[in-house]
Specification:
Blueprint (H helix, E strand, L loop, with lengths): L8 H34 L10 E2 L5 E2 L8 E7 L7 H11 L8 E7 L3 H10 L1 H4 L3 E3 L4 H5 L17 E6 L5 E6 L7 H11 L2
Parallel strand pairs: 3-4, 4-5
Antiparallel strand pairs: 1-2, 3-6, 6-7
């Protein structure tokens, strides 16, 4: 017995249109990701855009506070990225070379501060870190960090990305680590090269 699937003409047209739109949207994603990634790397050699990040109490952290020091802004999705991002944030907090007169590491996460404080209570090393909050990933989006290779949620959340800013406020490098490692030593080597 032979069965034939009959689709009403109107439903067939709608189905075909949805299929074409679906394929078109998938083809457009890599171009959008490439453009966004290009935006992130286009910051290199230019002053860090004027951004507004907040501390756990909701107060704006003044970026001019970084002037005169090399700053590493570590953008991550935060608590969802366990253990990789937690390990990097804790490694910065426990490495005095990143909280001194010349070099400062700031972790930028998309978590709400109240949720972050609960996690810090469970892992005290997180509480020692300098953490700023990027509500709704708006700063990460503006800097073009949401579609880099390390993002596990492309277009929505940052992954494991470092923005290296010199003491004059100029972005010297954007390092995206899809391996999501603790990169203190590599970052210190890059900073040493900048000072030559």
């Amino acid at each position: 017995m032979k069965y034939t699937l009959r689709i009403p003409r109107r439903a067939g047209i709608v189905l075909a249109a949805l299929l074409v739109l679906g394929i078109a949207s998938m083809v457009g994603v890599p171009a959008q990701q490439a453009r966004a990634a290009g935006d992130a790397y286009a910051m290199v050699g230019k002053p860090l855009p004027d951004i507004e990040l907040r501390d756990k109490d909701g107060k704006v952290y003044p970026m001019q506070r970084l002037r005169g020091r090399t700053a590493i802004l570590f953008f991550s999705e935060g608590l969802m990225c366990y253990p990789a991002c937690w390990d990097q944030i804790a490694a910065f907090a426990n490495d005095r070379r990143f909280d001194g007169k010349d070099i400062v590491a700031i972790s930028v996460v998309v978590d709400p501060p109240r949720v972050w404080q609960k996690a810090a209570a469970k892992m005290p090393d997180l509480a020692k870190a300098t953490v700023l909050f990027d509500a709704g990933a708006s700063i990460s989006r503006r800097l073009g960090l949401l579609s880099l290779r390390s993002s596990m949620h492309p277009g929505q959340l940052p992954g494991h990305t470092y923005v290296l800013v010199d003491g004059r406020g100029v972005v010297r490098d954007v390092i995206d680590d899809a391996n999501m490692a603790v990169n203190n030593e590599m970052l210190l080597k890059l900073i040493a090269k900048l000072k030559r």
